[in-house]
Specification:
By secondary structure, this protein is an alpha/beta fold. It has one domain: Alpha-Beta Complex (putative 2-phosphosulfolactate phosphatase), CATH 3.90.1560.10. The strands form three sheets. The protein has a five-stranded parallel β-sheet with strand order 7-2-8-1-9, sandwiched between helices. Strand 10 and strand 11 form a beta hairpin. The two termini are 23 Å apart.
Length: 237
């Protein structure tokens, strides 16, 4: 097995997906929110790229069983049931519900990987569970940070670096980009919350009043759930 890091998902070479397991990472906040929602009994999450697509999808759904969630500019979209804070997705709110989700960064990354055989959802909250699933699949792991508005995102790469560090210790070889991500992780691992607060995305969320979300999203290994994206839907196996 050889592990890699794709720093910008927009450069993802779709033709080279065979034999690989992709891990989409959007720490602040989409993948953390998806992990939390499914852990709390949500039946499935449908990631869509645009707000209009989300509204179109909900029209085709059973209204009482479906929730609209997501954000633009970090804030809940007008007309949506939920924003993109994982703290909103409690068991009381989402259990038994189907969620149509659109976010600025995370849900677009899933669109890039539509049709790939193995696509997992990762964050700090389920690092060890994701690593164990990658090892069990015996496919080459590729970390896919969602990034920030199409660019580099520090917290996503650091999270991927944490996963890659564990994989390397398990005997998995690392490609050069994966080694670079590990170096970043080791530079920040002593204070991950402070890293997130000092990141570009973290500062934006703090300004919007979501500092508690950073604390939630930087919890490490509090979930054993590993959501899987296939055929346009994210579920737990």
């Amino acid at each position: 097995m050889r592990a890699d890091m794709q720093f910008l998902h927009r450069n993802m070479p779709a033709k080279k997906a065979r034999g690989k397991v992709f891990v989409v990472i959007d720490v602040l906040r989409a993948t953390t929110t998806i992990i939390e929602a499914l852990s709390n009994g949500c039946t499935e999450v449908i990631p869509v790229a645009t707000v209009d697509e989300a509204f179109d999808q909900v029209k085709k759904s059973i209204q009482e069983e479906t929730l609209l969630g997501g954000e633009r500019g970090g804030l809940k979209v007008d007309g949506f049931d939920l924003g993109n804070s994982p703290r909103e997705y409690t068991r009381y709110v989402v259990s038994g519900k189907r969620i149509i989700l659109t976010t600025t960064n995370g849900t677009k990354a899933f669109q890039k990987l539509a049709g790939c055989e193995f696509v997992l959802v990762g964050g700090f909250t389920n690092v060890h569970a994701v690593v164990q699933r990658c090892i069990a699949l015996k496919a080459d792991p590729v970390m896919v940070p969602a990034g920030l508005r199409g660019g580099f995102s520090l917290e996503d790469v650091v999270c991927g670096g944490m996963m890659l560090d564990i994989l390397e210790k398990s005997g998995v070889a690392l490609m050069d980009a994966a080694k670079a991500a590990c170096i970043l992780y080791k530079s920040f691992h002593r204070d991950l919350p402070e890293m997130a607060r000092d990141s570009e995305h973290g500062r934006e969320l703090i300004q919007l009043g979501y500092e508690e979300d950073l604390d939630f999203c930087l919890q490490t290994n509090v979930s054993s759930s590993v959501p899987v994206f296939r055929k346009g839907s994210i579920t737990l196996d």
